[in-house]
Amino acid sequence: MDQENLSGKKLAWLALRSVDGIGPVSARRLIDAFGSPEAALRAGPALLRRVEGLSARQVDSFASHGWLEEARQEWSKLRDLGAEISTPDDSDYPARLREIPDPPLVLTRRGAFLPRDAAAVAIVGARRASPFGLSLAEQFGRELAAMGFTVVSGLARGIDAAAHRGAVSAGGRTIGVLGCGIDVVYPREHGPLLAAVAAHGAVVTELPCGTPPDPANFPQRNRIISGLSMGVVVVEAAPDSGSLITARLALEQGREVFAVPGRPGMPLSKGPHALIRQGAVLVESASEVADALRPQAEGVTLHASPPRPPATVSLTPAERGVYASLSADPKHIDRVSAELGRPIREVAPILTMLEMKGAVRQMDGKRFVSLPVIPAGETGSS
Questions:
Q1: How far apart are CA 89 and CA 93, in angstroms?
Q2: Does residue 85 form part of some domain?
Q3: At 327, which CATH number?
Q4: Candidate from 34-43, 83-92, 180-189, 301-310 with smallest mean pLDDT
Q5: Which residue of 44, 75, 179, 276 shows the fewest CB atoms closer than 10 Å?
Q6: Residue where a domain stops, chosen among 296, 325, 348
Q7: pLDDT one-digit tens code per residue, 220-241
Q8: DSSP assignment of 133-166
Q9: Could you tell me how many helices (H) and strands (E) the chain has, helices first?
Q10: If DSSP codes are grouped into helix, strand and coil, which group holds residue 29?
């Protein structure tokens, strides 16, 4: 195979990833043996068999050459999507990620990596988080981003999404790591959030276009989340949570692990409490995380940032009434309707408008919680 067929180093990395059975660890062995993906792809069976740890099946996979066409197709799809790729050869490939034992061969991204992303902090936790946990994750994300840290998470429902939203609301940097192809929106309702994260940082994946969000993808995704970061903060997690996998991977990669304590006896407190018993750093505020990680953030300008005061939101009398009936505890729309003595057909559009104004958030099962805002007067119907 010649260089013309590979059309450059990026396509060579895509081709190496496309060889059946070749993952990050075996690819590193090949690069160590041959010096580059192009050289590894050109090597014949005799040379490949000399690579320690490479199986006969993996050697045979190079013979088909179907991986070259697969790489070309992927290249074409990425070009059509306007997505970019970063490989270990590229200067923008995150340095911390390059240091882990199994760095991704290819990172497909929307958005861009910046040098300041070296000061990254991951925030992870439960998908079915409590309103308190969601509020806390959003606060951590907002305050860390306001201090200059890049907030990393997995773009999942719950804590991940709250952390990303917090960083975006602060106008800071955030990176979302997918467990599917760059062209797959998962969860389906996160399309606007993915766009916001890409605009304020990057959405990245190591998986080819069209890859569905299979459960087996997420442990591998988690190593990228921790690998990009100086430390991982766990906010609410069950004992068997994927967030604890991320924490374990972080420890293996030499990263700091922080845990936010929860209410005793609550299922989602068990994960963080177990981590604390195992030696994770107990934290109750973003500033504690920042203080612990500042010494590692060489070359990145960080600054102290006081908590941002609640936003002032203009509400009509009707909206103020509905807002006042809500709290941090989820309340079903039927109960809101009954307490206010107003039919659901009147309450539902008011709740929708409050959600658009950032004053309430809808949880599962048509339940709503209020968000910390300062209601301001506005003329309108009551």
A1: 8
A2: no
A3: 1.10.10.10
A4: 301-310
A5: 44
A6: 296
A7: 999 999 999 999 999 999 988 8
A8: HHHHHHHHHHHHHHTTPEEEE---TTHHHHHHHH
A9: 18, 14
A10: helix
